[in-house]
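Field: sequence (string)
Field: structure_tokens (string)

Example rows 1 and 2, in order.
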Amino acid sequence: MSNPYKGRTGIDRIVSATGYSMAGLRTAFAAENAFRQEVWLAFAMLPLAMLIGRNWVEVALLAGSVWLVLIVELLNSAIEAAIDRVSFEWHELSKRAKDYGSAAVMLSLLLCGGIWAAAIWQRFA
């Protein structure tokens, strides 16, 4: 049995995939408080990356760490949605999956904070 959604090719596939991605971003922004907060911080931090970074590598590290937080938050939200789709009932494996996703977000935030702290220290101290 073939998947009717997998038959698209070329530009049609790109247009469809872009639409699905934009729908995912809109839904995450509307439904996920943590993602919304991180997006607002990203709006402030991404321009600052260009001011703090002294060259393209530093700007890329600062901006990339911000983008990484958003990406990991989206993946965590996807894990949570999939688990909740299966059941709202408590289960050890469901808890473990959600905890792993949460830990990934925490690690991405720590990485981002560390990169930013080091860059600000080097730039202004």
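Row 2 begins here:
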Amino acid sequence: MLEEYRIQGRRAAEIAASVEQAVGAGELPPGSPLPPMRELADRLGVNPHTVAAAYRTLRERGVVETAGRRGTRIRPRPATTSRELARVSAPPGVRDVSQGNPDPALLPSLSEAFAAAAAEADARPVLYGESAVDPELARRARAAFDADGVPPGPIAVTSGSLDAVERVLAAHLKSGDAVAVEDPGWAALLDLVPALGLRTVPVRVDEEGPLPASVAQALRGGARAIVVTDRAQNPLGASIGAERAKALRAVLADHPEVLLIEDDHGHAIVDLPLHPLATVARTWALVRSVAKAHGPDLRLAVLTGDAVTVDRLLGRQRLGPGWVSRIQQRAVVHLWERGALRPSVAAAYDRRRAALIAALAERGVPARGRSGMNVWVPVRDETGAVARLLHSGWAVAPGAAFRLNSPPGIRITVSGLTADDVEGIADAVAVALGPAPARRYD
């Protein structure tokens, strides 16, 4: 491919732009090697430091990665190519079970909570210089963390889980550092890591969470951080049990220099207990979003962690948005005071998920989903399965949005499914995947 495309430019910015243009045009596909810096410098007639600066810019933008002896290569999925492009748009008449949204019927009403929060703001406006975190929100969040065995630590509030993860990674890592991520895993995270100029290192996952041997391999290979989903893992629905947590803690204890980020977005929509890993970590953060339980548009997550991590996060936050609206924080407090964290919500998602997995099993289709609101179905031909289901009236999420090296599959969100829906989509999936004897996806 490099014989077909010749990088051009005399300045670092021009060289970087030439590579980015080729990536965008498909002339340098993922995995393509770039020339060694001295070789390219000789070819262009520039100083090697100029090429080094261009490659550094490309790494920071998430376009390339340095792969040891393999040199500098175009990332498997450049940050400019969002995984959202792999989503399926549901045309009129097609049921959309691809988006991973909660059931609106299970979300609490926000009007009363925001009215109460606004009235408090009228009586006592929050002004510059006040705490970024509402004291009552911090108290309640810390009490919930304590009840789940999360180590002591200060509280921060961010604009959702992804904002929290980004700020924690930026607080500790530098361009080119490696981050261990679940594979398959959260699509937004798989986009975020390279966008920050970091390298993704895939970690295998089963229904109990990350496999300890795979985590150990990633950390021995130099990963500086790892992001783990405690419950309702997206897309597999994994939930870390007591034995798996014990094994993972043993691995992490051997690498005290590694940054641990735990994502517990399943809080309040999962009835399985939390088994935090941070008890053995020196540098860590645990994040809880209110999106799945209270509504994605609230854009609020609470975070705790070691004192240095939280201090760095709050310090950088002060130089940007400053804080997450205290009115918004107070509204969440009112939701918690009014019992918005209902066990019946987790039970409803459990019933729907279990019903779909059982219906698929009756038709000879294996599926996975231990917790949360999604079911993962391994497939041989991902594109074909998605297309056939779309033709039969169901829009599912292609596994490509969630995968690095793991086998293909499709994700089905069960949030809005009724009992009749479950039978209908199970029939459609069985037909789309073909005869049962031919189904071998391992």
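free_text_note (row 2): DSSP finds 15 helices and 15 strands in the chain.
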